[in-house]
Amino acid sequence: MTITAGTAHRPPAEAVEEPRPATVAAPPVPAPEPREGRPGEWIVAARTALRRRLRSTVPARLRLLRAATVLLAVALGFLLLGAGLAAHGTWDDVAGRDAPRTTSAAGLDLALDDMDAQAANILLSAGNGGNGEKGVLATPHSKAVSLYGDARREIGHDLRTLAAAAQGNRADEKTVESITDDFAEYQELIGRALENDRHAGGRPDALTDYRDATDLLRNSLLPDARKLVSSNDAAFDTRYVTARSALSVQLVAVVVLGLLLLVVLGVLQWYLARRFRRILNPGILAATACTLAAVLLGTQLLSASATHLKVARHDAFDSVVALSRVRAIAYDANADESRYLLDPQRRTRYAASFLAKSQQLYGIRGATLSTYDAGLAATWQAYRADPTDLRFTGEFRRELDNITFPGERAAAERTVDAYAVYERDDRKIRALLAAGRERQAVEFCMGWEAGTSNAHFGAWMAALDEVTDINRAHFDEEVTAGRGELTDRLPWSCGMLLLATGLTGLGLRPRLAEFR
Predict the structure, then answer these.
(1) In whole angstroms, what is the distance from residue 122 CA to residue 310 CA?
(2) What DSSP string runs through 48-66?
(3) How many CA atoms lie within 13 A of 78 on its CB side?
(4) CA 142 to CA 344: how far, in whole Å?
(5) Digits of tens for pLDDT over the chain (516 positions)?
(6) CA-to-CA distance for 222 and 461, rounded, in angstroms?
(7) Is the pTM of this model over 0.85?
């Protein structure tokens, strides 16, 4: 048997299957592993995202703090500027309107009293009237005529001032109009009295006209003038109270805004130190120092303005008004002496009026004209031994209770000493008249030589003026000092706030530049 190689075991063709290419399956995609399986990767990603977010938030926060700083600084600056302008307006009103109006009203009261006193002195020094030079007291007469003219001109000036000041206040306008009309009538009555006295036998008619003039003065002119004093002084006091209240509110507002601004600057400094790993930012530190200086200057400005206003109004000007009232009462009391000598029919009335005015000035309980001097001496001696022992009342007591300035007490005490001398002169005048020595009484009352009543009255008024001048000088000083506070402190305070704003911007500029 023959074996053929390679064919012996081959199956038939139809029985052989062609091999098929095998289909290779794609390898399975592995499922993603859970995150928690690899913590390092997602922590890094979270930190990266947070860093991006923080980098976008830091400039915004810095800009927000910068805006808050600027807004607070601007608000504080405007507050100080507004307070300063308001204080400047208050000082202008006090010095240029309120005080002059009140002193003009007080001057009107005084001039009316003086004019009536001089009218009585003219009649009294003219002797019997209508008899040529017989009985005329030449020096007292010419002096009285001159002072009468001065008082009349002063009244005219004060009425013009008060008429302008009363515009817009209907009550004061009506009062000024009433005074103007009554003053015209008063001058007519005095003019008629002086004219009648120039004629022989005209003294009775002159006295009638003078009585009518004096009654008009007492019943209408003086009450209206004193009403103006009270009205203008009350207006001054209202302005003072309003200004002081405004200064108190502004002071609180400045402190609050200043503290807020300092807090914002402190937060900004802390944030910069924490975020940028720096201890202090020089610009913010300088801005904080400027802000602190501005707040201190602003609070000092407002508190000092309030103090100056109080001293000017209550410590100084209250005394000026009170002493003006004393002077008016004194002139009216001095006129009562002349009236007492001039008009025998009204001597009882004028004596009672003089005593009432004495009690207004230096009140002694239960005193009469005959006991007043002894009471004055006893109570004044008790005061000199112990200044807290004030057994008397009246305007002198009010002044001694309001002693404020150096030298004021000594001047006030000299005024009372001079007043006591004048009071003793009054008893001498009445004693001379009671003894039938009318000519001597008139000469002592109206003479200007040393040792006479008029000379002692002049010394009393000079001492009173000294006290008034002390208070008036301090009033002027306080007004000047109050204005000086505005000039000295306000520009520095506002300038410091402006500088603080600029320094804040400069301090933040390098940090903000890091994020561009």
Answers:
(1) 44
(2) HHHHHHHHHHHHHHHHHHH
(3) 5
(4) 24
(5) 334 444 434 444 444 444 444 444 445 545 555 444 455 666 666 666 555 554 557 777 778 888 888 899 999 999 999 999 999 999 999 998 899 999 999 999 999 999 999 999 999 988 765 444 456 788 888 999 999 999 999 999 999 999 998 888 899 999 999 999 999 999 999 999 999 998 888 899 999 999 999 999 999 999 999 999 999 999 999 999 999 999 999 999 999 999 999 999 988 888 877 776 667 788 888 999 999 999 999 999 999 999 999 999 999 999 899 899 999 999 999 999 999 999 999 999 999 999 999 999 999 999 999 999 999 999 999 999 998 888 899 999 988 888 889 999 999 999 999 999 999 999 999 999 999 999 999 999 988 899 999 999 999 999 999 999 999 999 999 999 999 999 999 999 999 999 998 888 787 776 666 666
(6) 20
(7) no
The dihedrals phi and psi of 363, each to the nearest 5 degrees, come to -80, 130
Contact 512, 59 (CB under 8 A): yes
Buried b / exposed e along 229-254 (16+ C-beta atoms within 10 A): bebbbebbbebbeebbebbeebbebb
Please report which helix (H) or strand (E) contains residue 367, including its range. none
Place of tokens 């003009």: 104
* Tokens at 15, concatenated: 């029985």
Render 195-264 in DSSP notation, one character per residue. Answer: HHHTSTT-HHHHHHHHHHHHHHIIIIIHHHHHHHHHHHHHHHHHHHHHHHHHHHHHHHHHHHHHHHHHHH
3-state secondary structure of 29: coil
Structural contact between residues 126 and 133, judged by C-beta atoms closer than 8 angstroms: no
Distance CA 111, CA 226 (A): 12
